[in-house]
Amino acid sequence: MLSYQHSYHAGNLADMHKHGALAWTLAYLTRKEKPLSYIETHAGRGIYDLTGPEATKTGEAAQGIGAHASWFPADHPLTLARNATAPLYPGSPAIALHLLRASDTVHLAELHRGEHAALSAWAGRRAKVYKQDGFALAHALCPPTPRRGLLLIDPPYELRSDYSDIPRHIAKLHRAWNVGTVLLWYPILANPAHKEMCSALLTLSEDSFCHEVRFPPARPGHGMVGSGLYVLRPPYGLRDELARLAGCFATL
């Protein structure tokens, strides 16, 4: 379908959950000098104008980072990434490129023609950008070089089959790359479309978990009522950071 554009949703409450975890994890992984591989399957355009017509049309950014930026203190890696890209908002590729080092390798996949063009123009030579199916790219690269690293899977869930296909993809990637951290984002909808997927994912490894937060719909009739993350091979301390974030969401 390829109709999804994250410009309408950037900076929303789900992004705060996902980007907070991503930034914290990358900051933790870069404490060691050894280089990393970062792979993203659905990268979007990389950076977003929250004052643009798309973001202001939905109001999701105003309800998210616009109202609750204080959830992330001044020294939090997400705040540091936001400061580096201000006045624009960093999507996950921008967060990664800010926190990673010259010795690290960044692979970004995006199939949407317009989003891919914007991503390529913005990233330049700082990342390898592919107009390719993200899962196909991940399977082709894994295990990557360097072997340490993180895979972010953040599909738009335009097709209901995504929920049944994702456990199969992650199982194969888990077998191919037994040292990489995998971070999967999924929406919490009014219908429990994610539950069977999560049950299947949690059978893949004892070293994995799901973390979910709830929040009010962005507007009347909006189907997303929460945000979920599945983490495979989580770094030490990530559970504590997510518990801190959950406490913030509990105040909504």
> From N to C, what is the helix and strand string?
HEEHHHHEHEHEHEHEHEEH
Give the spatial strand order of the biggest sheet: 5-4-1-6-7-9-8
- The biggest beta sheet, please? 7 strands, mixed
- Coarse structural class: alpha/beta
Please state the CA-atom Rg, rounded to the nearest Å. 17 Å
State the helicity in percent bands: 40-55%
Low-confidence stretches are none
How many beta-strand elements?
Answer: 9
Descriptive tags:
252 residues; 9 strands; globular
How would you describe what is shown here?
The protein is α/β, with parallel strands linked by helices. 40% of the residues lie in helices and 18% in strands. A seven-stranded mixed β-sheet has the order 5-4-1-6-7-9-8, sandwiched between helices. It has a two-stranded antiparallel sheet with strand order 2-3. Helix 7 links the parallel strand 4 and strand 5. The model has no long low-confidence stretch (mean pLDDT 95).
List the helices and strands and how they pair.
Elements: H1 13-29, E1 37-40, E2 47-48, H2 53-58, H3 60-63, H4 65-68, H5 77-85, E3 89-90, H6 92-99, E4 105-109, H7 113-123, E5 128-130, H8 134-141, E6 149-153, H9 161-176, E7 181-189, H10 195-201, E8 208-214, E9 224-232, H11 238-249
Parallel strand pairs: 1-4, 1-6, 4-5, 6-7
Antiparallel strand pairs: 2-3, 7-9, 8-9
Helix pairs in contact: 1-6, 1-11, 5-6, 9-10
